[in-house]
Amino acid sequence: MSSDTEVTGPEWTISDGLVSYPDALAVMEERVGDILAGRAGELVWLLEHPPLYTAGTSARREDLLMPDRFPVYPARRGGEYTYHGPGQRVAYAMLDLNRRGRDVRAYVWKLEEWVIQALAEFNVRAERRAGRVGVWVVRPDRPPMPDGSPAEDKVAAIGVRIRRWVTFHGIAINVEPDLSHFSGIVPCGIRGYGVTSLVDLGLPVTMADLDLALARAFERVFGPTPLPEA
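User: That's the sequence. What structure does it adopt?
Assistant: Structure tokens below.
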């Protein structure tokens, strides 16, 4: 690719109110189809859902602890059970890896890095953990784990689906959700750890604050989209 190849960034949309999960899936399906057909460009969609649980392709029935608490939807993404609800910023990324690089591991790493860099703007040290999906924070204010290691809580979830190298789903960052709602599942099938939020960590961050941080971090981590050469 020549150094003067034209580039462009994805479209960004922020939805007010709560978006139903089936509606969100329908929008993603349509947009990914349009990207593949060349009718539309990439999209980053920021939204909140009403309280619900989603089941990824690896979800185990025993990890749905309260099946009647909230609606449960098949997500058609990788992973296990996840909670979505008010106070959680969901960012669905419909990106074209045909242009950004056909590397699933690199894409997941960038999603994690997107969260890590956005939260760093609020002085939150969010980290990856080998063998544990999502983004984590150490909680020195809580009793250590049985093995003596520091307590850790999950602050963001990640889920990915890819069709012909165009992505669905994305990230979910806990800003100020009702953390008790997570008790109806084993989040992402990972036992022994808690779930936290920015407000739970003592940070009065608004959705608007986080959205700006996400936009800045996205540009640093993903950069613009290379357009195809003529």
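The longest strand covers residues 152-163.
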